[in-house]
Every structure is written in structure tokens, then in C-alpha cells.
Amino acid sequence: MSQIEIKNLHVKIEGKEILKGVDLTIKQGEIHAIMGPNGTGKSTLAYTLMGHPAYEVTQGEVKFKGKDLLKLGADERSRLGVFLAFQYPVAIPGVTVANFLRSALNARRKAENKDDKGVSIPEFRKLLKEKMDLLKMNHDVAGRYLNDGFSGGEKKRAEILQLATLRPEIAILDETDSGLDIDALRIVSDGVNALTGPDLGVLVITHYQRLLNYIKPDFVHIMLDGRIVESGGPDLALHLEDQGYDWVREKYEDTVSA
Questions:
Q1: Is residue 105 included in any domain, yes or no?
Q2: Would you give the DSSP letter of residue 200?
Q3: pTM for this entry
Q4: Looking at the chain, which terminus has fewer C-beta neighbours within 10 angstroms, N or C?
Q5: Number of structural domains the chain divides into
Q6: 124 belongs to a structural domain
Q7: What is the phi-psi region of residue 252: left when phi exceeds 0, alpha when psi lies from -120 to 50, beta otherwise?
Q8: CATH code of residue 19
Q9: How does pLDDT run across 118-170, given as a tens digit for each residue?
């Protein structure tokens, strides 16, 4: 069973320290949720794990499948089995959804077996159709340029389509609920739930309890000032929904600026 192990992770961006000692382990088959106020470091953690070059790791380590993840490029991390669904997916005009996904899938297969000749077009079309039906997506999306002219809901479904197609071992969902109406949220959540199981570990980053009404976490963590300060079960998210973050700030007021 694969797991991603984060130990004492410190990260700076543009000279400012954002993460100040994050410890977290996510195993295949587990769903973790990280909640916290704006600016506390949740997205910084996601981008750091995926290898964004603007984020400077100054201390700590991240291990995955026996490798030092921090020494690998973003493409190597992806081929190894780590996936990030972006909060704000970018458009790539000129590259269709189908071509993008087939290229990404073949790169992953090639990394696992250098002699792999890649997925055939008929086989890939069948796979893509199955995954799009799972997410209740129109099949004509496959021929559109990736995220070009997509609505917010279409972009998020396209991210989950990538997750379904690539089948990573650890998936990070960075505020996937951002900008979604209730119907799109339900469809995207149903897609994530259909993919979860013993082979997939998930880290859900969100501000709101509403996403966790659909994607049920095993563990909930509260991040404050670049640290995980509280961890618990699903009831912790309900407590946050009811009480807000003031009690967390009061409890840790002596340590958040230390």
C-alpha cells in the first residue's frame, strides 16, 4: 500500500514563510480533508506536493513509494502516481481533451513499463466514454480544447475526468468545490466517490462543510498559520461549520505567530 509521508515541511514563496512545519501521512484507501481560513497555507501545501517551482522548501521531507518526492519534477511526480486537481484549471487552446488525456495516460504507462506501446485509439475511446458517462459529461467534450471556453463546472468535471482516466494512487483536490452550484457539486462529488477505494488516497482541501456532505472524509485536519493544529474525524468539520474558526484562533493564539 502506497502512502505519502510529509514531515516537518516548511515552505516559502517570494521570501515569505507560508508552511511552518506540516506533518501528515495519507495512505491509499483514506480520505483526508484539510480546512482552514484563507491564507493559512492549504493551497501552498497542494502546490508544493505537486512540485510548483515558485514554492521553496526550506526544511522537511516528503516521501512517496520510497522516493524523495521533493527531488522530482512535477511530471515525474505525476507519473509516479500523484495527482492534483487545480482550484483554477487553465485553458490549453489547440489541445483537445481526448489528446491531452491519451498523452498523459501513455506517459504514465511508459513510466511504469518502458516497453509499453501505449493505449490504442479504440481502447482509449472506450475508456474515455466510460469515464465521461460516470461523470455525466457530454461525449462532445472530448473534442473540445482543454478548458477553453468551459464553464466553472465543466472545468472541475474535466479535472475529475483526468483523475478517473489516470488512476493515480494519491489525489489532491484543491478546493474542487470552488465556484460550483449545488448540481455541479453533486455530480463532481459523485464522480470522486465512484473512484475512491482501496487503491486511491485522497486529500480534499476545502473551506466549507458542504463538500464534505458528499465526499465523506475519514480524517479532518484544521490548518492555521501554516501548521496543522487540530485533527479528528468528520465531526470536526461539523463543529467548524457550527462554530467557525474563532475557537481555533483563541486556542492557538500563543503559537500561531511563534
A1: yes
A2: B
A3: 0.90
A4: C
A5: 1
A6: yes
A7: alpha
A8: 3.40.50.300
A9: 899 999 999 999 999 888 889 999 999 999 999 888 888 899 999 999 999 99
